[in-house]
Design brief:
The chain is α/β, with parallel strands linked by helices. It has eight helices and ten strands. The strands form two sheets. An eight-stranded parallel β-barrel has the order 1-2-3-4-7-8-9-10, surrounded by six helices. It has a two-stranded antiparallel sheet with strand order 5-6. Helix 7 links the parallel strand 9 and strand 10. The radius of gyration is 18 Å and the shape is globular.
């Protein structure tokens, strides 16, 4: 399978002041998918503009025709499966079936306390995701769902006519632990990783590759346990969080070298951040666009 190149566009600009143009340009450049973060606020952007993921993707769907769209990632931190399913079915309809849901357990950032709750422990986040994903799967696949769980409930929740994509829109499950990998193997059409966060500050690119090789091996085991061939699952690397940081975007050759090493591990999609000046995602826009237009041909 040829390597796909995608981007993630952070929702920090007003639609009329550069927000719309980035999504339109992403389609013109030939990206496979343009994702956005599904947060209420995020890191250094907390005290600046930040817009909602679903309305942003709805507007992006109206502004584009071929580009796939999605979240990287949605989490239970401030979402409920019943309301999320209704929004996703509507978004899938408006886009003509171009939506991918990236979904994960979430973290301890601003989203974790914005609704007034205490941050959940890693175990509770995993417990919630383990209930959230199967219920959301049902809500997007069945006309009517009733369910009583530990964390989430649904009472005759109706989702007619369902997704344009059948049996539902695809899930890209972000996970590195055994329970999350099990969810990816059972419910995902793709798996997402950012690498090993412990290596970001002091690790080397070589150590990162080995860590990703280990994650891929664990995913293979989870797929085998689920009776599934791992080749049927897309493998997505969201870049910017490995020891390589922004170096792959410094030149076309640097990116092709980086992407090629990860393609050899089995990754089928590489996601790069749309350049944001004066941030961790700063990059030369011209080099970024050259990578978008020329890298795929060199990677095969």
């Amino acid at each position: 399978m040829s390597l796909r190149l995608s981007t993630v566009i952070l929702p920090y600009r007003r639609w009329s002041e550069g927000g719309r143009s980035a999504w339109v340009r992403a389609e013109q450049l030939g990206f496979h998918t343009a994702y956005t973060y599904d947060h209420l606020s995020w890191r250094s952007f907390r005290d600046g503009p930040w817009f909602g993921a679903v309305p942003t993707l709805t507007a992006a769907a109206a502004a584009t025709e071929r580009l796939r769209l999605g979240t990287l990632v949605t989490s239970p931190n401030f979402r409920h499966p019943v309301t999320l399913a209704k929004e996703l079915i509507s978004l899938d309809d408006i886009s003509g079936g171009r939506i991918t849901l990236g979904i994960g357990a979430g973290g301890t950032g601003f989203d974790a306390t914005a609704l007034g709750q205490e941050p959940w422990s890693p175990r509770e986040r995993a417990d919630r995701l383990a209930e959230f994903v199967p219920l959301l799967d049902r809500l997007l696949s069945e006309d009517a769902v009733s369910y009583e769980g530990r964390f989430y409930s649904a009472h005759e929740a109706r989702n007619i006519p369902g997704c344009v994509q059948r049996p539902r829109l695809p899930f890209a499950v972000a996970a590195t632990g055994p329970r999350g990998l099990k969810l990816a193997a059972r419910h995902g059409q793709a798996w997402v990783t950012t690498g090993d966060p412990k290596l970001y500050e002091t690790g080397t690119p070589e150590q990162s590759v080995e860590a990703l090789r280990g994650q891929m091996a664990k995913l293979t085991e989870a797929c085998a346990d689920a009776g599934r061939d791992i080749t049927g699952l897309d493998k997505i690397l969201l870049t910017g969080f490995t020891p390589d940081r922004a170096r792959p975007l410094q030149s076309l050759d640097a990116f092709v070298d980086f992407a090629g090493r990860h393609q050899e591990l089995g990754f089928t999609e590489i996601v790069v951040h749309w350049p944001i000046p004066d941030s961790d995602f700063a990059a030369d826009q011209k080099v970024f666009e050259q990578i978008a237009m020329e890298a795929a041909a060199q990677l095969g």
